[in-house]
Design a protein that fits this description.
It is built from 5 helices and no strands. With 164 residues, it is mostly helical. The protein has a domain of 100 residues: Four Helix Bundle (Hemerythrin (Met), subunit A). Helix 2 packs antiparallel against helix 3 and helix 3 runs antiparallel to helix 4. The protein is rod-shaped.
Length: 164
């Protein structure tokens, strides 16, 4: 009895292949009888695929530009913070000229970050902080002292720019 079941399977496979080939033949015959309808359906489908691809491509480009802008903003703020910390070190060492130069570089980095961070109010915050640092840098250039509290406030604002 086991052998009769084994012999039936190849026949079933052969029958399935014949039905599949017949179905493909019928689809080909149908497409051949109505070429205008098939061409129109293929054309509609291809234009839909092209439109979808264009939209997807636009979305990918927009997303990558947004990410690049956010990365440039963060990098500018990190560079500015680095310069601010260097300036604090120079102030602790009573090296006011180098501290003023470091603060000027921090202002440059923050202004660049402000240009990159146009969305979400980041630009205005970065530019406002750059103005405060520029004022401190001006005070140092004129020979005035800068309190540690003022530098701590600026550093806290810088840290808040990095928070998201």
């Amino acid at each position: 009895m086991a052998q009769t079941e084994h012999k039936g399977r190849p026949m079933l496979k052969l029958f399935a292949v014949i039905v599949l080939l017949g179905g493909v033949f019928l689809l080909g015959y149908y497409a051949g009888q109505r070429p205008a309808e098939v061409k129109k359906a293929v054309k509609d489908l291809s234009s839909e695929v092209v439109d979808t691809t264009k939209d997807l491509s636009r979305n990918v480009v927009d997303t990558s530009q947004t990410l690049e802008r956010a990365l440039r903003y963060r990098q500018g703020v990190v560079d500015a913070k680095e310069r601010l910390l260097e300036a604090r070190t120079d102030l602790n060492d009573k090296n006011f000229g180098d501290a003023a130069k470091e603060l000027a570089e921090a202002v440059t980095h923050l202004e660049e970050a402000g240009l990159a961070g146009e969305e979400g109010g980041q630009s205005t915050k970065a530019k406002a902080l750059a103005a405060r640092i520029k004022a401190v840098e001006g005070d140092l250039s004129r020979g005035k002292t800068v309190s540690r509290e003022r530098m701590n406030e600026i550093q806290k604002e810088m840290d808040s720019l990095l928070q998201k």
